[in-house]
Amino acid sequence: MTSGSSPMSRRRFLGLAAAPVAASFATAGCGDNTGRPDGDPGTLVHWYHQYGEEGVREAVERYAASYDRARVRVQWTPGDYATRLLAALQGGAPPDVFEYQTKVDLVRAGLLEPLDDLIADVRDDFSPAALAIHTVDGSVYGIPQAVDTQVLVYRKSLLDDAGTEPPRTWEALADAARTLTRDGRKGLFLGNDAGVSVAGPMMLWSVGLEQVTADRRPGFADPAAASAFERLRDLYEEGTLLLGAPTDWADPAAFVQELTAMQWTGLWALPRIEEAFPGDYGVLPWPRFTEAGADSVPVGAFGAMAAAEGGAADLAKDYIHWLWIERTDLQEDFNLGYGLHIPPRGSIASSARRLASGPAADAVDYVDELGRPSSPPEWTSAMDAAFKDALGNIVKGGAAPREELERAARTVQDELDALFD
Amino acid sequence: MSAAGRFAGRVPRVTVGAVVLYATLTLVALLFLLPYLLILRNALSTDADITSPGWSPLPRELDWGGFAALFSGRDPLMATGLRNSAVVAVLQTAGRLLVCSAAGYALARVPYRHAGKLVLVVLATLMIPAAVTFVPTFVVVSSLGWVSSWRGLIVPGLFSAFTAFLFRQYFLAFPRELEDAARVDGLGYWGTYWRVVLPNSLPFLAAIGLISFVESWNSFLWPLVIAQDASMWTVQVVLSTHLTAQTADLQGLFASAAVSVAPLVLVFVLLQRHIVYGATEAGIRR
Amino acid sequence: MNGTPRRRGWEGITDRPAWAFWILAGPFFAGLVVFGHLPLLWSIYLSFFEARNTVTPTEFVGLANYARMLTSRAFLDSLLTFTLFALFVVPLTFALSLGLALLLHRARRARPLFRTACFLPAACSYVVAALVWRLTIFNGLPSGLANTVIGHFGAAPIAWLAVTDPPWYWPVLVSLRLWLQVGFYALIFLAGLQRIPHSLYEAAYVDGASPGWTTFRHITLPQLRATSIAVLLLNLIAAYQAFDEFYNLLGADGTYPPYARPPLVYLYYTALGSGQDLGRGSAGAVILALLIAAVTLVQGRLLGIGRGPR
C-alpha cells in the first residue's frame, strides 16, 4: 500500500461513524504503524506464495532490490496464500503487486487492474495457453511468470526390481501401486489427502469430461466421473497410497526419502529428485481412464497482477512491466535457476538447456501435447471448494458419487449464474 | 477419597495406597510433560532423524542448527513473529487491565443510576462468545482500514466483557474502609480508583494480567484473520503457516515452537501461585 | 453528591457519579459497542445481502443466505461435528480433571511439583500442540510415536489424520484438547476441594460413614457443585469455539477436508477463504450465536445458575 490510498477514503458505511473512536484509540498509544513503510509514496508491496525450491526467495528479493524507480518490499507467504490474498483484496488492504490466477469473480468485483497495454508489444512471444488463463473478456489481468505442470514421477530401479513397467493406463497405475507397496514403502503418493485436492481435474479429463463446459455449465455431474472417482476411492482403501507424510505432494521429500516409489508432483521438484537419484527416475502424464478420455498433465501459470484499488496502480504496472517483460534475463533466472519451470515466453523457453533433455524434456513434451488448464478463469475458488468437498466425501467419506457430484454441480451452476447472467 | 487421605493416614507410613497414588501421579506428570520433551527432541534433531524409522526419545545426535538458524535470520518471519507477539501481548494486556479494571470499578462502586442496567448489558455480552463474531468483527475492523495493522491486532481485544465483569466482582468485595479514607482525603472516584484501589489490588491485577498475557500470546484465530501481511503475523500464525504449508523444515519448526513456548513455561513455573489464583478466580466467578 | 468543598477541579468533576462513571467506564463501553455490538448488528445487516467479494454490498436478498446456510449440508455437518466433539471432550475433561484433582488433593508430599507438571500444558498454544500432535506423535509414518507404540503390539502403522474409516482423527483431536486443558480444570477443582470444610467429613465419620465412595458422593460432589457448573459451562463454550486445533491438524495449504469441520472452521472458509462470501458467512455467524445463546440459557436454567450465591 502506498500512503496515496487512505484507508478511510473507500469506507462507505462505518468509516464516519467510527472515526472518533478510532482517533481516540490512536492517541491511547496503540500507534498506527501498519508495518508498511507508509509515508513513502515510492514503495510497492509485492506478494509471492512460498516456492519450495532453495534460493527463489533470495532471487525475488534481489530482483525487487534492483528496480530503481521505487522501493519494493517483498512479502514471502508460506502456507495458505490464496486465503490470505483473497481476504486482503476483500478487506481493503491489498498488496500493490501479487502473483495469482486470474479469476472471473475477482475481475467482476473490480479488484484486478487490466494489463493489456503492458503486453501489447510482446503478446506473440507468450505461450498462448499461458495467456489464455489470464484473459477474461479479452483483457489480460496477469502477466504469466512461469508455466508449471505436474507429472507422475517413478523410481526406475524400484519398478525394475518389482518387474513392473511404467504405468500408462489407470489399471496399470493401480497395479503398480499395489506391487510397489513393500519393504515399509508405499506404492504411490498423491498427497496426504489421497489426491482429493490435486487429482480432480485429471480424473475428469481421463474420462473425457471437464470442470466447466464451453457453454458455461458444470461438466462433471456424469456417471463416467462418478465411476472414475470410485476407482480413486478403491485406491485409497487398498492402502497402497502414502498418507500422513511430513510434507505434501508438491514437495519431493516423500519420494526422496523413499517413503514412496511413485509420486505425483510438480516439474519444479525435478532438480531435487535428480540430485537424490541421478538418472534413476522417469516422468509420466496422468493416464487415461476410458477410451473417451485422454492422458493429461495440468498446466498452470501464476501471473503478476496489480491491485485495482489504491493509488499506486501505475507504479505497480511499471514495475510489473520492468520485471516480467523488460528483464528477460530475470525471467530466465526465475524459471530455470532454482527449481524448474517452463518460461512462458517462447524466445526464452526454446533456448533453455535444462529443459532440453531427460525427464524434464519429457515433461515439456507432455505440456505441449497433453496440457490442459487446471484452473481456468471461470473456475472460481468457491466452485473449487465445492468440487473438492464432493471429492473428499466420495473418496474418504464413502459417499455416493452421483449425489455428491450433483450437489457440487448445483453450487457451481449457482456461481456461474451469478457471474455470467 | 480425598477425605480418606486426610484422615486415615495421620501417621506417615508407606502404604500400598500411597505407592499407587504417587506412581499414578508420576506417570501422569510424565505424560503431561512428554509433548514438551518432544519439542526439544525434534528441535535438536536433524530432519532426517525426525522422520527416520525407529523411534527414540532423545535426539540421536545433538544438532543445534535449528536454533542457530532461528537466530541467524534464515527465517525472518519467525523473528518478526516473536517480536509482534511480544508487542501485541504486552500492549493488549496493559490496555485490557486498564480499560476493564476502570470499568469494573465504576460498575461496582460509582452510584450512577444506570449502572445496574449496564451490568446487565455486560452480562448479556458475555453470552456471545467472541470467536463466533470473528466474521462481523473482521468486517468492522476492515471497514476502519485496520486490516494488517497494530490497531487491528490489539484494539478489538481490549474490551473483554468477561474481564470487566471479573473486576466488578472483585471490587464489590474490596474493603470499603480504604476507599472511605481516600474520599476523606479529598479524592474523587477517579483518584480513589487510581491512587488507592489499584495500588491495593496488585495481586489480582497480576493474576488477571498473566492470564490475559497467556491468552493474548497464544491467540490464533483473530491474528490469522486480521494480519494478512506477513510483517504483522504473530508467532502463532507463523508457526501455523509453516505447519500447513506444502513443505516443512521440521527441525526449524520445532526450534521455533520451543522458543515461542519457553517464555510462557518459565512464567508458569515462576509465577505459578499468581496464575493458579487468577485461573481459579476466573473459573469460579464465571 | 456530598459536594465536599475540598474536592475541586479534576477531583470535583470525577466526584459526580455520572461523570465519574463515564470517565472510568466510557472507554470500555465505547469499545464494547464498536467491537462487540456493532459487529453483531452489522453481521445481521450483511446477512440479508449478496456480499460475495465485498464488505459493502448493495443487493438485498432477504433470507436467501439463511436458507442457503440452513440447507447447506456442510454447515449442518459442522454443527454435528461440534456436537460429537463436545460429547467426547466435555465429559472426559470433567472426569479426568476431577480425578486428577482428587489425586493431587491426596498427595501431601511434593504436591507443588506434581501440580506444576500438570498445569504446564496450559502454557502451550493450540498451534504448538497441533504441531507436536500432527508431525511427531500422530504422523502417518512408522516412525511416529503413536505408530511406534502400536507397533510394539504388532499393529500396522496408521495414517491418523488422513484415515476416515475408522475415524482415527477423533482420538488425535480429543487427546490434544485434553492435554491442554485437563490440568487447568484440575486446579480449579483442587481449589474447590480445598474449600470444603473438614468438619463435614468428620461429622460423617461420626455418623458411621466410611471414607470412600459414600463420602465422595454425599459430601465432596455436592460441595463441588458451583465449581462443577463452572467447569462444564467453560468447557462447553470452549468446545463451541474450537478452531485452532482443527485448522492446524487437518488444514493443508488452503484446503480443509469435508469431515471433522467444526462451525468456526466452516465459517472461516466461507467468509474469508475460498468462499469469499460475507453474506453467507454472516448468516452462519448469526445462526451460531443464537444457538450458543439458547444452549447457554437452557443450560443455565437446568443447572440453576443465577440463583443463590455465585
Low-confidence stretches of chain A: 1-39
| Number of distinct helices of chain A | 18
State the separation between the terminal residues of chain A, measured CA to CA: 34 Å
* Total of domains of chain A: 2
Please state the overall shape of chain A, judged from the principal axes of the Cα atoms: globular
CATH architecture of the largest domain in chain C: Orthogonal Bundle
Number of helices of chain C: 14
Task: Provide an overview of this structure.
- The complex is a heterotrimer of chains A (421), B (286) and C (310).
- By secondary structure, chain A is an alpha/beta fold.
- Residues 1-39 of chain A have low confidence and may be disordered.
- Chain A has 2 domains: 14-147 and 301-373, Periplasmic binding protein-like II (D-Maltodextrin-Binding Protein, domain 2, 3-Layer(aba) Sandwich); 150-298 and 380-420, Periplasmic binding protein-like II (D-Maltodextrin-Binding Protein, domain 2, 3-Layer(aba) Sandwich), CATH 3.40.190.10.
- In chain A, strands 7, 8, 9, 10, 11 and 13 form a 6-stranded mixed β-sheet that branches.
- Chain A has helices at residues 14-30, 56-65, 81-91, 104-108, 116-119, 128-132, 156-161, 170-180, 200-205, 223-238, 253-256, 270-276, 313-326, 328-336, 346-349, 358-370, 381-395, 401-420; strands at residues 43-49, 71-77, 97-100, 135-136, 139-140, 143-144, 148-155, 186-189, 260-266, 281-284, 297-300, 303-306, 371-373.
- Helices cover 42% and strands 14% of the residues of chain A.
- Chain A starts with 13 loop residues before the first helix and ends with a helix.
- Chain B has 286 residues and is an all-alpha fold.
- Chain B folds into 2 domains: 2-68, no CATH class; 71-285, MetI-like fold, CATH 1.10.3720.
- In chain B, helix 5 crosses helix 14 and helix 12 packs across helix 16 (272-285).
- Helices cover 68% and strands 1% of the residues of chain C.
- Chain C has a two-stranded antiparallel sheet with strand order 1-2.
- In chain C, helix 4 (73-106) crosses helix 13 (263-271) and helix 11 (225-240) runs antiparallel to helix 14.
- By secondary structure, chain C is mainly α.
- Chain C is built from 14 helices and 2 strands.
- Chain C folds into 2 domains: 1-35, no CATH class; 65-303, MetI-like (MetI-like fold, Orthogonal Bundle), CATH 1.10.3720.10.
- Chains in contact: A-B, A-C, B-C.
- At the B-C interface, helix 1, helix 2, helix 5, helix 6 and helix 7 of B face helix 1, helix 2, helix 4, helix 5 and helix 6 of C.
